[in-house]
Amino acid sequence: MTTYKIYDLGCKVNQYESQIIRQQFASMGFSQANGNPADIYIINTCTVTSSADSDSRSLLRKAMRLNPGSRIIVTGCYVEKDADIIKRICPDAEILKKGELISSSCGLSGFTGHNRAFVKIQDGCDNFCSYCKVPMVRGAARNRDESEILNEAGRLAKAGFKEIVLCGICLGAYSDIVKLLDKIESVKGIARIRLSSIEPLNVSESLIKKIKSSEKICRHLHIPLQSGDDKILKRMNRKYTAGEFVDLIKRIRASIPEIAISTDVLLGFPSETDKEFKNTLNTIKAVKPMRIHAFGYSPRKGTAAFNMPGEPEAKEKSRRVKAVIDLAGELAESYANKFKDKTVSVLVETSRDKKTRMLTGYTDTYIKVLFDGADCLINKIVNVRINMISRSYVTGAINGN
């Protein structure tokens, strides 16, 4: 039997599309290679940063090394503009654009290796942030057909998935996300609906009210900040100020006090001085996100920022990233402490913690909790009382234990 192996990088949309590919290959009678060299390698690439480009090339070389005679298919965002680089590394690689490998109408019926299933509701982006290559490789923002989304959510619910994560390249660009949430809530079997990353300008009052009133929508929003300095935000082509971002978070918390706010922060953008960096730190302290994805700026050819002067040195960018990560640890512990000695609902993951062998799971507010329990609890939502919080762990005990 022909075997295949998929390597993917990047966002939830990429993971969703890799699952579509996996499902399509299974329907053709192929099986996944389990530890052995595969007959076919599919590399689903990412190009959001220069590191993602490098990782994509590394996976290509890994596939060539594991089985020199294999068929190699390369797809994803990196190939949209840089197929020539892939061909120089592997002349025999098959370069397939998204539409050539993934059927737009093909929906998921499962999600291998996960107990939360991702559902893509839109693709593309019209924002053109000056540092971002994604609009060039993903195209204009466009909705996925509503009936496809609802049918897919129904299939995933029947397959046993209790939580679905709505994802997109620019999730908030979906034409009427509140209306869509209304309809997904009525899908039998779905206990939780989580939104992935959503831009600040797309967080409407109607969306806030919807989350507040819903028993299924998770009290968690990932809203990218990118910078906490107004000058840098303007150069990034981010259409809000640091003050407006802080005010948005205040309005959300005034309506939903325990909501979890996570964010992205891009450090070392061209012309970012230590003063602008300190402004970003101060904005983060005002926002108090419970989780931060901090990363250094990398020039992306074709973007407006590519030739901007004043990019900090790599060592300085790393220092700033580390400072934000350190601050993020403090803020995560502070947020988790709000739930100390409280009972929370946890969706139990399929895998135990590798070090402690305890069960793990996430609250709707995206806190990872470790606790003792039997395997029969996997993929169930259980009530856990939080009893210990540290930088490394949040632990608890199932009610009654």
TrEMBL record:
Q: Which PANTHER family match?
A: RADICAL SAM PROTEINS (PTHR11918), THREONYLCARBAMOYLADENOSINE TRNA METHYLTHIOTRANSFERASE (PTHR11918:SF45)
Q: Name one GO molecular function term.
A: 4 iron, 4 sulfur cluster binding
Print the keywords alphabetically. 4Fe-4S, Cytoplasm, Iron, Iron-sulfur, Metal-binding, S-adenosyl-L-methionine, Transferase
Record domain Radical SAM core: where: 111-336
Q: Which cofactor does it need?
A: [4Fe-4S] cluster
Q: According to the entry, what is the taxonomic lineage of the organism?
A: Bacteria, Pseudomonadati, Candidatus Omnitrophota, Candidatus Taenaricola
The MTTase N-terminal domain covers: 2-107
**What InterPro entries does this protein map onto?**
Elp3/MiaA/NifB-like_rSAM, Methylthiotransferase, Methylthiotransferase_CS, Methylthiotransferase_N, Methylthiotransferase_N_sf, rSAM, rSAM_horseshoe, rSAM_sf
What is the name attached to this protein's record? Uncharacterized protein
Q: Pfam family example for this protein?
A: Radical_SAM
Source organism of the structure: Candidatus Taenaricola geysiri
Q: Which SMART domains match?
A: Elp3
